[in-house]
Amino acid sequence: MVSVCLASYNGEKYIGDQVRSILSEIGDDDELIVSDDGSQDNTCIIVESFGDTRVKLLHNIRRHGINSNFENALRHAKGEIIFLSDQDDIWLPGKKDACIEALKDSFCVVHDAYITDADLNVLEDSFFRSFRCKTGFVHNWIKNGYLGCAMAFHREILDIALPIPESLPVWQDIWIGSLCQIKHEVTFIPYKGIKFRRHLETSSTTYKSSFTLGKKISYRMSLLWHLFERLNHHK
Length: 235
Known about the structure:
The chain is α/β, with parallel strands linked by helices. The chain has 9 helices and 9 strands. The longest helix has 21 residues, at 213-233.
């Protein structure tokens, strides 16, 4: 069984297309968990309008924020294989199968992606090449390539990854990817599984971050501290 965990917030403009693309990829016994962080637009109405039993809409009420919203979805996931999903991208045919095949020999996989504008016009035909992605903890600690919306992993890592630290200054993808890399391994595969949509309302800062060098160093040192604390606790 596969669980797709999607975090939503005021995503009415794109979420319908994204949900449709996911449902066309997953099987009858799989699930799409949409955790909504208090949207004030028609996001929830659009999700409910699909009327598909595979779609489970949750409301994140404990603590707001991207990490908390993803955590809410992950806590309800039942699948042995888990995919993360943003609300505004598009899944491409073969994404699920390509990741599951790669997961036979790996604990976590990250696939390549087309980078597009708001109208899905391709800006760059490889996220990996644009971001110089490669495997290895140190490389990704310096320059994160663990793109959450292109990531799939075995649910076992959730025993360590959850709860996501409230004071963690980075997103859930680098947290989960780093834990997978330390405890098991992360494989980067060249298959391009999504159209990674960049637009004015996007919440992600993974792509071409504008953070200052000082802030990046501070965030990475904090990540190291949180990783040490969590792994030490789970010895």
